[in-house]
From TrEMBL:
It is found in: Cytoplasm. GO terms for molecular function: flavin adenine dinucleotide binding; tRNA (uracil(54)-C5)-methyltransferase activity, 5,10-methylenetetrahydrofolate-dependent. The keyword tRNA processing applies. The keyword RNA-binding does not apply. This is Methylenetetrahydrofolate--tRNA-(uracil-5-)-methyltransferase TrmFO. Its EC number is 2.1.1.74. InterPro entries: FAD/NAD-bd_sf, MnmG-rel, MnmG_N, TrmFO. The gene is trmFO. It is an enzyme of class 2 (transferase). FAD binds at residues 9-14. GO terms for cellular component: cytosol.
Amino acid sequence: MTQTLHIVGGGMAGSEAAWQAANAGCRVVIHEMRPKVETFAHRTGNLAEMVCSNSFRSDDDEQNAVGLLHWEMRQAGGIIMATADAHKLPAGGALAVDRDPFAEAVTAKLTAHPNISVSYEEVDSLPDDGHWIIATGPLTSGKLAEAIRAETGAEALAFFDAIAPIVYAETIDMGIAWEQSRYDKGETEEEQKAYINCPMTKDQYEAFIDALLAADKTEFKEGETAGYFDGCLPIEVMAERGRETLRHGPMKPIGLTNPHNPTEKAYAVAQLRRDNALGTLYNIVGFQTKMKYGAQTEVFRMIPGLQDAKFARLGGIHRNTFLNSPTLLDGQMRLKSRPNIRFAGQITGVEGYVESAAMGLLAGRLAVAEMTGTALPPVPHTTAMGALVTHITGGAEAKTFQPMNVNFGLFPPVEGLKGGRRGRKDRYKAYTDRAKADWAEWLAASALDAA
């Protein structure tokens, strides 16, 4: 193949798109502005750096839509899932990874690939010709974001994303806290003890909520609006929605028994998940925050077991931008006004590492097919991959379009199955069985031979 595919952005989507295209024989250039141009959230110049959680969420491919997406990406030879599997950490039924070795491994694989080169320069305008995928994610540089806005004639939509803090494990008081996955999930003892749990009494919880509500928060700049994505709400915003919200969300006490006091049920529990293979770092699950740094240390040390905690990283907040994809992109993920440019990843309005990588996987395959004159069959909307791309390229209501995680609500119903909670297990299994068969058939029919 003599043509070159240019990919702007070396995050989850850009890395996966590059891998798929390069393995099909396409020459690929990844344009990554880091480390020359830094962002609020990134710490390194590695490709596929994880900037928020270290979790790819549920790995259950029979009862969970994101687990199904994991399965589909593995079947397609995805680099993100293969590398995540190689660097996974105990996390009960979830797939969590050791973030730094994961990103280092993805970077090493991509830079070693004979069909891939990396240009560490900022792309600040939309190219007029050539084949391009823009996968710059929610932290698209200001100049490129302005070029996109000028081209689309619309203001980019925006929401705010918050990052959870990370604690040094040695500073957690294990005389108060204990190791246990909720409902003892996991096949091994290590997985069944993948989380550290910090219990609260009712009085401690109420005092914690009071402190959250009173703490100093990051102020928004003029013209910014706090349009949060519901899947990544700051804990103080959740607390503002009702004092019991956290206790029924990330701090729910169900499925846990405190071995220090097995007869007394905790009123609320803060959970920490391992953040690296050494087990020296733990992130506080669901504790994204926009509190100022000084307030964070005071408030988080109110949690029993974290009274002497030291933090490897405190939480933060940043603005994310994304396209109104249902109006701007065609079914091939191309910008309607400039069809030589595809978009992939979070900038298209999907939310989550796996969803972003999945859209990169599709964009890379679609680009190669177009470059080689190969006609690919439509991605079945019965699959997790197809449900997502259908949603962002026209299935969603443009007027209310917001970032979306993969979920079974995006799938067409299976006829003859009961609705409601009682029929959910059978319904989800039917969704995943159908998706696996349809995805395997699509992969076989859309194979791209290396040229």
